[in-house]
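User: I'm writing a tutorial on reading structure tokens. Could you give me a worked example: one chain, its sequence, then its tokens, then a sentence or two explaining what the tokens reveal?
Assistant: Sure. Here is the example chain.
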Amino acid sequence: MSDNVYRVTEIVGSSTTSIDDAIKGAIARAGATLEHVERFEAVETRGHVENGQVAHFQVTLKVGFRLNEA
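And here are its predicted structure tokens:
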């Protein structure tokens, strides 16, 4: 088994439905763009309020992915 090298980058997912949908959408997009996405960490959650109601969720994620072999 060889040693691996990983990179971590920050992305922000958003949703008008829920925090869960914001996370799932961000991970799905990262997986379509990056190879070997293997982990995430939610580091910040925020939202937007309109007329006293939550209108929009945003979640900042640290996404870890394994780099390809040289």
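What the tokens reveal: Helices lie at 19-33. Residues 30 and 70 are 22 Å apart (CA to CA).
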